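Can you make up a polypeptide sequence alongside its tokenized fold?
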Amino acid sequence: MHNNSSHQNKSSDFKIVDMLLSKNKEITVDSETMILETQKRVWGALKKGYEYSGMIDESDKFLRKNVFSKLDMVVLYVDLVGSTTMTLEMPEEKIAIIVSSFSQEMAAVIRQHHGYVLKFVGDAVIGYFVAESNALLAADNAVNCAKSMITVIQKGINPILNQYDYPDLMVKIGVDFGQNIVVRYGADQDNSHVDLMGPAMNIAAKIQNFAKPNQILVGDDVYQRIHPKLQKSFFQIVWKNNEWKYRSRLTGELYKVYEYKG
């Protein structure tokens, strides 16, 4: 009996994971379920090495189909704060599991909000939301994704880490909109590395660098496209001492950045 019930639990866990990672874009999971499943996976990873799969395959297929195309998209950078401190306080193998779980959980949130996971870079995850057919929807999806990321960390991942006396995770998130070009490095259509280049990639990364722990910052081109109700939760950042130097390519004026206040 015991084996059967544990098998059922396991298969139910995987059903939810499949839902989160499903190619079927209609499926959504409510935040309570998302938090619960995050906790199961993170606990499983810390206890017995839960393995995630298939996070960047969809992006890879999409980019290969669109090599050398210029595409409007919203780009999101999410970066783990304080991993250097963790390395001083915890065993290396545990840090590797935590960083890996963090990255994969952030990727799952991107997928759930109809985005693609471009890549994992160190402690950061980069996602993008294609805006060719509906830029307003892509902007809303990206901002809602950023909000969900912080919820998943605070209510899903951290309570599990706290049970092991591990420190809380915090993130910095930067989001921007613009045109990027799909590049392929090499002639092999199936195996050469594919990536994105363009202003939105650069500015999203710059914006994210200026974010404080658990802060979401968005560029003006995202702010102008999100729903008016969502706009009410954002406030323009007033920069001090010329710390922000980037100017809009359209107006030549200092490019505005907004902070999510909730």
Notes: The CA atoms of residues 78 and 173 lie 4 Å apart. The radius of gyration is 19 Å.
